[in-house]
């Protein structure tokens, strides 16, 4: 009974700290910090998240429909894309390229664009690495999503560190990853996010 409760708690933590949930919150916070008014803040947040999430969702649904119609096999979005590094790489590109392009031409703040590009780049790198290894996708993306907070807001945002550890512990407890796989994911997310912000000239 205690083991089941512990696993349930670990699943809840893993779901609450899902990278795309956290990224939505991070983008909302950064947009608020950069915007001159509540109206602009709402517009920046909605457009940024829609441009980032809409195209991958359309692709995922279309891809599953094609597979079902051509093979007759029933597949779930989570299992199919998780087991296909090439599909994950395509998703990373569909997530990052259109959203960054749209936001750039709309003259959105570079902090918002860099955050989305950092997560997309981390996702792409992990997908490529996972062709030969199995780094933690969750921890890489979570790390790349929260690093912008530490870059933009400084020391107060270091409160996110316990959440990185908490997510890693939950993924380990659920048997999803080894400590080395979790560490690899964390380092990939950290390095890529810092590199992207340096490339944008935000981190000097």
Give your account of this protein's structure.
With 204 residues, the chain is an all-alpha fold. It has one domain. It has helices at 2-16, 19-34, 38-71, 77-82, 85-105, 110-129, 137-153, 161-173, 179-199. Helix 3 packs antiparallel against helix 5. It is globular and about 50 Å long.
Briefly characterize the structure:
With 204 residues, the protein is mainly α. The chain is 80% helix and 0% strand. It has helices at residues 2-16, 19-34, 38-71, 77-82, 85-105, 110-129, 137-153, 161-173, 179-199.
List the helices and strands and how they pair.
Layout (H helix, E strand, L loop, with lengths): L1 H15 L2 H16 L3 H34 L5 H6 L2 H21 L4 H20 L7 H17 L7 H13 L5 H21 L5
Helix pairs in contact: 1-8, 2-3, 2-6, 2-7, 3-5, 5-6, 6-7, 6-9, 7-8, 7-9
